[in-house]
Amino acid sequence: MTDAAGRYLVFDRPEWAALRAATPLTLREAELASLRGINEYIDLDEVTAVYLPLTRLLNLYVSAAQNLHRLSAAFLGTLAAKVPYVIGVAGSVAVGKSTFARILQALLARWPDHPKVDLVTTDGFLFPNKVLDDRGIMNRKGFPESYDTRRLLQFLRDVKSGVPQVEAPVYSHVVYDIVAGESVVVEQPDIVILEGLNVLQVGALESASEFVSDYFDFSIYIDAAEADIQEWYVQRFLRLRETVFQNPDSFFRHYAALDEDQAIQIARGIWREINGKNLRENIEPTKPRAGLLVRKGFDHRVTDVALRRL
Q1: Which of 9, 131, 201, 293 keeps 20 to 30 A from 147, CA to CA?
Q2: How many domains does the chain have?
Q3: What is the pLDDT of residues 64-113, one digit of tens each?
């Protein structure tokens, strides 16, 4: 069926799963376990029902794009430069973007036509904490103004221009900052997956002539009810209190000593003042710009998928 506006074809879980056709399951349980995020319960059934149809679709899209580049080069009488197919993955904090992107990367890399798939997160393009402090926006980390958008655009420009080696900064969730002197090197892969909160955002840059999403060949928005995402965030915070926050180098080590009630109160306050506000003001409004909407229920399982009409 179609959505009310007629822009998307909407599939419930069984309908979407049927589009897998004969796509083989190439991921094993041990591999999947290494890709899961904290407090996410994705199993091989979820991979089969949701990810395999998606990788089949993307394989067709990537092949079509590669063929178009070859035809264009033949017309111009030039050699076809290798241009990566760029996929954007957007959605709220704690909605499961990172796990989704990692599983997608692992599966796409198993298709013979595009074995080299790189994953880059926009966390690396956040301004360093010192810059955020100087500008008085440390409490707005993750909001559009906290990103070095010019640098991110240059990265994408270089990737799409076929530059042999392109570097992206590295962000540490332990120290909660950019890691000086470290970078991720992208060397002309077949596919680049760019995952981040605001990759579809344009509202804060209304006077700009160029947007991050201009460089996407396809985009995905991971969606869920805000109440569910908030609960996932709280549960993740509690889990981090027992693990990462215990690290002496952790930016949030002062939260490690909180009891459970205190931790829940802090987590809900952070959601109310920062993450929930960012979701409502900046992230969720970008949802209609995505090529694919993936809707999750409270148990993290995908309930339906909406594919934008071509």
Answers
A1: 293
A2: 1
A3: 998 998 898 899 998 777 889 999 999 999 999 999 999 999 999 999 88
Q: Could you tell me if residue 28 is inside a domain?
A: yes
Asked whether the beta carbons of 139 and 130 are under 8 A apart, the reply is no
- Residue 147 makes CB contacts below 8 A (sequence gap 6+) with 122, 125, 126, 127, 198
153 lies in a domain?
A: yes
Runs of H (alpha helix) within 124-186: 129-135, 149-160
pTM (predicted TM-score): 0.94
* Averaged pLDDT, 21-50: 92
Distance CA 281, CA 203 (A): 10
What would the DSSP string read from start to end of 256-297?
TT--HHHHHHHHHHHIIIIIHHHIIIIIGGGGGG-SEEEEE-
